[in-house]
Amino acid sequence: MREGTAPLIRREDYLSPAYWIRQVDLTLDLDAAKTIVASKLTIERNGQQPAQPLRLHGEDLNLLRVLVDGQSVSFRHEDDMLVIDAPAADQFVLEIRNTIAPEKNTHLSGLYASGGGLYTQCEAEGFRRITYFLDRPDVMAVYTVTLRGDKKKYPVLLSNGNLVEQGELDGGRHFAKWHDPFPKPSYLFALVAADLVAREQWVRTRGGKDHLLQIFVKRGDLDKTEHAMNSLIASVVWDEARFNLPLDLERFMIVAVDDFNMGAMENKGLNLFNTKYVLASAATATDADFDGIESVVGHEYFHNWTGNRITCRDWFQLSLKEGLTVFRDQEFSMDMAGSASARAVCRIADVLRLRESQFPEDAGPMAHPVRPDAYQAIDNFYTSTVYEKGAEVVRMMHTLVGREGFAKGMSLYFQRHDGQAVTCDDFAQAIADANPDSALAVNLALFKRWYSQSGTPHLSARGQYDTAASTFTLELSQANPVTAAQPNKLPQLIPVAMGLVGRHSGQALALQLEGEAAPSGSHRVLVMTEATQRFVFTHVTEDCVPSLLRGFSAPVLLDDGLTDADRLVLLAHDSDPFTRWESGQKLALGRLLTALPTGTLELDEPFVHAMRGLLRDPSLDPAFKELALVPPSEGYVAEQTTEVDPQRVHAVRESMVQQLAARLNEDWAWAFAEHQVREGYRPVAEQSGKRALANLALAMLVRHAVATGDTVWPGRAYQRFKDASNMTDRLGALQALVNAHAELAAPALERFHALFRHEPLVLDKWFMLQARAPERDGRVFAQAKQLLKHPDFTLGNPNRARSLLMALAFFNPAAFHRADAGGYVFWAERVVELDAINPQLASRFARALDRWRHLAEPYRSAAREAVARVAARTDLSSDTAEIIHRALQ
Ligand code: ARG
Ligand code: ZN
């Protein structure tokens, strides 16, 4: 659709469809230039709606014929819809024949070509780009799909469900017929026709059934599928063990494709994946890549129940499946990580992600509730609010009803709704009904404000110790900020997990609230339901520091009112690793914010001492140390200020890192030596933590060396880069050189490119690393512009486009926000260029400037001008137009 003025679709306007489609019989004659689609639909009138013509979605289709019960009928096109005067009969068969041109489909939505193969992506509204349909998730049908195509070009023909027939056809062609017994919405339809090979594995589920797991990749990539297969097997086992949810299919297939807009897609029985989340070997993938694969494989597999068996009634309910499934994949990754401290590291990483992307979203023009109220292009609402904040909402339910209670709630949810298309309300109701005495059930309406109100609540806490009375009084208050489209906010239910830590003893104190007969442990969850609440702890034997929002028990901005001295107590003694980490981050953040007005920072000894203590603490995990020793990102620091000067933020943070590099120089050298992994590479937490800390240490050592003119550490880094036996170490060493702007960075980059020029996923890293390097004198931006012309760069491949464009605009504020507005000009040109190719990708990239109002001058005016320039175009896609116009509102 090339029109910026697509209508606004509202949640409150939901009506069930006028017709149901019960059965779909599809036959596709596959050809990249022209594919013929024959569809035979068994349709039923929905008695709940008045009689009306049948209106089917269709986009970029070439219609050949329409038959109703074998007879030709009259039809017309009305705003992108095919309107057919349906017969009076309650049930009829509609036959449609149309053609499509996959090789011209650069949107990568619907049926498209990638490499020599054909692939589909139908969520959210891609099925209408294959054939005319009631393309909405509440219309669920049983599909039978016959695929026909050239046997040489497309030796593998796949669709959802079970293979029921296959054979030869004339002219070097062949066919395969698939049947999926589960009724499903059209967004879960998939097909693949390509020249692929598969890794296969049989698994037996607890019921004693055998299931075939297959991972399809291009020839030559099979040796990079072991980790994905292990992750898939682990997912099957985990979902059965943790939630009693078994694999319900005879075969479960994953197909990896090079050109893919998102991470992956949970089509029933036939998941399609971005190669980035399938292919990994020690030589080509980092520890983070291995973790990403495990989590995305888990995520898509878990959708089989939360998303596919129970799906969404309409797209406003997207978080019903996405929030819940992100929660599930996070829990899976934590369970896989093992130790308590490895779990904490996972949790910190999840919180970092939420705060980096969702908090800014919730404070900007794209702010929307977890269950949005209106949209123009649904693809714009696959957001971190729907996904990550949605997962936090599910996590809060989990916190309020406990692990057992949550499992009971999940069973009730499936008992009630299996096979249905439902709403977020249905989910919350099931969890509450299974736990009638819980704080969730008692305050359900209040809790559900998390679904309806946008914006990040501000929680403020003030504590007071009364020596004479031996009491500690904690006053909590919440403020719910005004956001786009929501002027009036009500208090939300906020679970505050907490404890009290003795100021002198460092001990966890027993917790007994006023009116309680006895203490109940040293950790508890306070349930806040009002704007302001007071909690009085009695029998508190010593002055203490409150440890609040442990494990990040609610997605809020916490003003804890603590002093540096308080934070040092928590950093040293708190039993909760999240709060411990957060205390260190707040110590750093406070210093950065204080330094912003002047632009100069001089690190104080207590802070340096505390950081050294962390680094040297033998009781802490290396992975935790790495997270704790990296100061808050420039983006996060910027979030805490009202008028952002990205150059100032960059300068101050760089100065902090540089000083930590200098003043802990010997400690970094010690850490580097101490955390070498001697045994063979395995992508497991105990090894990856060491690698992460060693890489951080190396980066600090090289930084300091470059600053002081010393050549020893850069030389060592270069050597390590050359000799590395795995990508994590190799990339770590390369990054140390590049980020420090060392002279050896250029030869290392050149060598890296030569080594990996045939590995697309590694080349992505090569582009990304350069686009994300800390800016110095405009060199990084100049290099990024240069890379745009590199023969290996293309906007046609989403991973490649992201590795340069998103890396620069989202993750390198100082290179992007330039006083000369060069970054904004670059942005505007790319948005327009990309929009003509791939609107979904363009609208993502467009969001890089949606918070222009938050910037200080001269950035603010220049950014606004760039946004306005794009807005002035009349040929924007509705995806990009929605983002751009919201940004200007
Ligand atoms: N459901 C997919 C997932 O697992 C993502 C699909 C995204 N589609 C889109 N058009 N944005 O999260
Ligand atoms: Zn998902």
TrEMBL record:
InterPro entries: Aminopeptidase_N-like_N, Aminopeptidase_N-like_N_sf, PepN_Ig-like_sf, Peptidase_M1, Peptidase_M1_dom, Peptidase_M1_pepN, Peptidase_M1_pepN_C, Peptidase_M1_pepN_C_sf. Residues 25-188 form the Aminopeptidase N-like N-terminal domain. CDD domains: M1_APN (cd09600). It catalyses: Release of an N-terminal amino acid, Xaa-|-Yaa- from a peptide, amide or arylamide. Xaa is preferably Ala, but may be most amino acids including Pro (slow action). When a terminal hydrophobic residue is followed by a prolyl residue, the two may be released as an intact Xaa-Pro dipeptide. It is an enzyme of class 3 (hydrolase). Residues 455-559 form the Peptidase M1 alanyl aminopeptidase Ig-like fold domain. This is Aminopeptidase N. Keywords: Aminopeptidase, Hydrolase, Metal-binding, Metalloprotease, Protease, Zinc. The gene is pepN. Pfam families: DUF3458, DUF3458_C, Peptidase_M1, Peptidase_M1_N. Its cofactor is Zn(2+). Its EC number is 3.4.11.2.
